[in-house]
Fold this sequence. Notes:
Layout: H1 3-62, H2 64-77, H3 81-108, H4 110-113, H5 119-144, H6 149-176, H7 182-224, H8 234-270, H9 278-319, H10 323-350, H11 352-359, H12 363-376, H13 379-395, H14 401-423, H15 429-454, H16 460-488, H17 496-521, H18 527-531, H19 536-545
Amino acid sequence: MSESxxxxxxxxxxxxxxxxxxxxxxxxxxxxxxxxxxxDEGNGYYGTAYNIxxxxxxxxSYSMPSAISKLMAQKIAVGEYKNAQRIFHCALFxxxxxxxxxxxxxxxxxxxxxxxxxxxxxxxxxxIIFLFGILGALRGYFQAQGSMVQTxxxxxxxxxxxxxxxxxxAWLLMHMAAGADTTRKAQLGAMGxxxxxxxxxxxxxxxMYYFYLRFRPVMRENIESDCSQKxxxxxxxxxxxxxVITPFMLSGFILNLTTSLNQTIFYKIxxxxxxxxxxxATTVYGIFSNKAVVISNIPISIATAVSSAIIPGISASYxxxxxxxxxxxxxxxxxxxxVITIPAFVGLAVLAKQVTxxxxxxxxxxxxxxxxxxxxxxxxxxxxxxxxxxxxxxxIGKMNMPLVSxxxxxxxxxxxxxxxxxxTSFGIYALVIVSIVYSAMIFVCNEFFLxxxxxxxxxxxxxxxGPLGCSIVMGIAAIVVxxxxxxxxxxxxxxxxFQNFIATCAALVVAVVVYGFLLVRTHVMSKEDLLALxxxxxxxxxxxxxxxxx
Length: 550
């Protein structure tokens, strides 16, 4: 693979990863005031409904961008622009159809899918499924062209609209029900937050449609220049679309089925068998799903972005029969992901309470949320690498292998969860344990399949051992800075929140510097590796001025 192509793929991955980070940061920033408005009880109702909504979304259209980009990229790689456009139209038709079915299922089946207290919240999510079908098709269309800019901008707009409407609608609905009981106000607050999700998806869909209208003349020129003799019929194009979308969809479905299945098992055993009251169980589950899981998903979003960016390139390389280029693309994406997520795991493990307090400063649940996040942090690495390997297997046509991995992991973790909840007093910590078990099982199975079908052999030192060693030293430095400032800052008379904010930010800055220095001094990352990254030239110039390369 040429350096320009390699850099191009990494730049597009970097664009989407940067957008994903911005989206996550916006999400965390608005979650803090939103949680303050609707409380942990309202958070619990929202999380319960959101998990079911996500499952239906996965079944219907969430995986469409990746699936469509894979199919269209294969056609574009061999100059079949007319067939690529036909794939897009088939995918759009598919998204509209399953969107209608999914929306109807959420609305009419809400009473069967969630506890009674969360039914009204789930029904607010129903129309969003239909909108996302259109949005998913449009995002996949541009990703197939090798451009992540449109998807990135739509994601940022989606989250901004989500944040603004969620906070505004939650406050307004709860203000209007000022005289209602606590449960009803929590329900209305959760409904307001769900309205924000819908506003975000609608805004993103309209922006993507605008981009599509602007790009149509270019695609029309490509179609007119198409000299290929191969023409796919509508039936064959629809068949190919369904056959590719379905494995993508089922992989995402099983992942989110795990979340909802664990939620259902937790409620059935904890509430049904009298271990906890309904309100208490919903509240602690809300702390787990809407605080610990939300924070841990921030670095995982980078892997999701990288996987979306590499799918078209891997699919095109494999379609051309260039196996060596395919291996290089997968290995590069995996290494970049590991180098980023391993220090994220260590950082969250050692600074879990401090980070949680910045995002969710509710003191009554801070200790629990911090412990859950610290335990959950290892899944950042396992899920992130698995996301890349999932994308790689799907891109080379082995789309059923991620399903096998997810199926094995689901069976094992479900048995473990039932045993832990019934025969131990772990309670909410059982969900953390099975999250680790599930992500570890997928990680191991995917690595086996990747070695089998692509012959990839990992360099354990550069991919895992080196970054982990650097991260451990980084973690120690972060703890020293954080604890040292925690002793000094109270003397300033600042509020506890700002003391923690300053200490944590300082610890994170030191952590980044120490980790970057160790990466290059231990030769885990070479100058060439850094230059291949987005803005790598600027990073190298700064390091050279600091004489880090020795």
